[in-house]
Amino acid sequence: MTANLMAILPYLVLAGGALLVMLVDSFVKSMRKDHLSNLSLLVLLGSLVAQQFTQQYSSDLFAGLLATSKFTFYMNTLFVAIALLTVNYASSLYSRSSSFSSEFYPLILLATLGMCLMAAATDMLVLFIAIEMMSMAVYLMVAGNRKSIKSVEAGFKYLILGAFASAILLMGMALLYGQTGSTLYSSFAAVSSSGGLMTSLAVGLLLIGFGFKIAMVPFHMWTPDVYDGAPSHITGFMATGVKAAAMAAMIRIVWVLIPQVSVVWAPLIGVLAVLTMTIGNLVALAQSNIKRMLAWSSIAHAGYLLLGLMTLLKPTSDSAVLSVVADNAGGALLFYLLAYAVMNLGAFGIISYLAKNRGEEADNIERYAGLSRTRPLVAASLAIFMFSLAGIPPTIGFAGKFYIFEGVVKAGMIPLAIWGVVNSLLSAYYYLRIIIVMYMKDPEESSYKGSSWETAFATSVLAIISVLLGVIPAPIRDVAVAAFKSLGQSG
Amino acid sequence: MEAVLFYLFGALLLGGAIAAMTSRSAVAAVVWLIFAFVNAAGIYALLAAPVLAILQILIYAGAIMVLFLFVVMMLQGPTLKSELKSIGDRKWWLPVGAVLVALLNWMHGVSLEGFTNDAPAGFGEIKGVAELLLNKYMITFEMISLVLLVAIIGAVALASNKKGMPW
User: Fold this and answer.
1) Considering only CB atoms, which chain B residues are within 8 Å of A18?
2) pLDDT number for residue B86
3) Which of B144, B154, B158 is closest, CB to CB, to A129?
């Protein structure tokens, strides 16, 4: 038991930290609540440090309910980094608006814990509770701006549809449990791989449940409204963290259940990936609101991620080739999650930074006019993030897409790869429009000005990372491949 | 004996459910639903699932339905009685119900291939549940407590009357 507890120390730090923040909030009275955000940052850093000390990986914690590996190490680092940036954005927003909500801090810590547990879960029960822990906290954070009708509407929509998706997911899990009498992933390997009716139904329901979380077409309808309504820094957290966590859980399930899953998922995911990126990119072309534009772009990016997942499912007769292709494809997926987090968090950080008044959102693209002259550094960072989202070298977004498409080609699905590239070209139009508005138009009275050096600093660092990892992506990519390999052989 | 009890509980459960649907007062409907839930608990007890029976009474009949009752009474108790249309007034649901019953009858004949049939020995006893909850599934038990904590924080944050909290 002690060994188990030592192994989950990073998770315990997050959980204990959330409780500590709540206690400190009620016992330490202060007008400025900076101490809460600093404490939250400490807790997040603490969990990273704790992770360094608990590197004896184990696949069998708590009788197989949880597994730690290089995979969870990679994902936890990603989730905690996302949370660190979000807390930074939030606290600078709070000091600008001189209005604080202390409930934000425990919620974001617990949401992060939920994400970390989703990546570590090797049992359906743990997975479901972790999903709920993350989702509930995110529903609340989305509805956080209670003065704004849009925010409350977004929170409510997300809650209803999220609950619906959870119910569908749970039904899929129940059907799998009905066939094996166990909720452990490892026991599902015994389920008939010929794709019996119950197995097909179960994995189909799982796909729908996860589809909601990663905003896969046709379960994407909530995305624009929720991303638009939520405060910008929360949108950044959702778009990157929630998507990455759902993807991590999907990768784990796919990797255990390939024979069973691929019967239903392989043809479906191919079609859905094409639909998801095409619809996402086409609708994004018509948006004049940057948050809605990024919401549709996040749907398109879910499509690229699904392409990566597709390569894992591709059945090949030669198992040696399969494992190499799969390792590279899995590594590409994990790398893409990181790349997407860097560029998207940067973009949402800048949107959050430009909002001057409390409750205002800097979401009108026209009002970005002349940003290059009023705020050159911020405009340059945003330009880098847009180049990166469009997948233009030398940025991290290009490297991410390159690895994904490389995997698709190696798996022999060349038409899909071509379609992905065509989509990337299509997306360049709406990403580059923002750069044109910032650089080619003169500043106007109504243009956003923005303030707060913390956010500007954080986004500049992200911009530097985007370029740096765009030029030399190989080391991180090797880490990602190693992380994926640590999941072990499938089936 | 078991068959007699099963049909007794089953009849009362159905009767309660029908009364809940057809009753014109929302409060009376909720009370009928509680009655139906208690009878469902009786059927669980007959199926050798005592824990489920107890939880059904404690949680569904007790906590959740009382919550329903309070909400109904606080929101619109007095006005509801005259305005609420009874579902008994609508006749279209009769064929729908008939189709559902037919479907149920058909499913009764389908053998659920692949599903494990027998519950393990001691399944559904309090001892077994407690052992699972506090030993094997200890970690999930603790996780659920954190999920509830999130819900509590959210309820307090959303319901509190503090002025403006954009986060």
Assistant:
1) 146, 149
2) 57
3) B144
- Give the SS3 label for residue A67: strand
Please confirm whether the linkage preceding A475 is cis (ω < 30° from 0): no
Cα distances (angstroms) measured from residue A59 to each of A186, A266, A267: 11, 27, 31
B73 and B131: one domain?
A: no
Residue of A21, A22, A25 whose CA lies nearest to A39: A21
- Residues of B within 8 A of A11 (CB-CB) are none
Q: How far is A101 from chain B (nearest CA, A)?
A: 5
In A228-267, the residues whose Cβ lies within 8 Å of chain B are 231, 234
Judged by CB atoms closer than 8 Å, whether chains meet at B147 and A136 is answered as: yes
- Beta pairing partners, A58: A68
Assign A364 to helix, strand or coil: strand
- 0.90 exceeded by pTM: no
Cα A43 to Cα A10: distance, rounded to the nearest angstrom: 10
Residue type (1 letter), A106 = P
Give domain status of residue B137, yes or no.
Answer: yes
Q: Which residues face A447 on adjacent strands? A: none
* Boundary residue ending a domain (B33, B60, B82): B82
Element (H, E) at A344: helix A319-354
* pLDDT of the residue at A322: 64
Q: Which domain holds residue B44?
A: 1-82
Burial of A6 (0-12, 13-18, 19+ CB in 10 A): middle
Longest dimension (CA), chain B: 63
- Partner residue opposite B166 with nearest CB, options A8, A63, A144: A144
Please answer whether residues A51 and A76 qualify as being in contact, where contact means their C-beta atoms are separated by less than 8 angstroms. Answer: yes
B129 and B76 fall within a common domain = no
Total count of domains within chain B? 2
Angstrom distance (rounded) from CA A219 to CA A215: 6
pLDDT at A473 over 80: yes
State which H helix or E strand residue B104 sits in. Answer: helix B93-109
* In-domain check, residue B99: no
B138–chain A Cβ distance below 8 A for any pair: yes
CB pairs under 8 A between A and B: 112
Cβ density class A358-368: b for 16+ within 10 Å, e for less? ebebbbebebb
Same domain, B76 and B145: no
What integer pLDDT is reported at residue A135 of this predicted model? 95
pLDDT of chain B along its 167 residues, tens only?
Answer: 888 999 999 999 999 998 988 887 778 888 899 999 999 999 998 887 888 899 999 998 888 888 888 888 777 655 555 555 555 566 777 888 889 888 888 877 666 655 555 666 667 778 878 888 888 888 999 999 999 999 999 888 887 766 555 55
Q: Looking at the structure, tell me whether residues B129 and B55 fall in a common domain.
A: no
Distances (CA, A) of A114 to A129, A133, A168, A417: 8, 5, 19, 33
Residue B26 lies in a domain: yes
Q: What is the pLDDT of residues A114-152, one digit of tens each?
A: 999 999 999 999 999 999 999 999 999 998 777 788 888
The complex's ipTM works out to 0.90
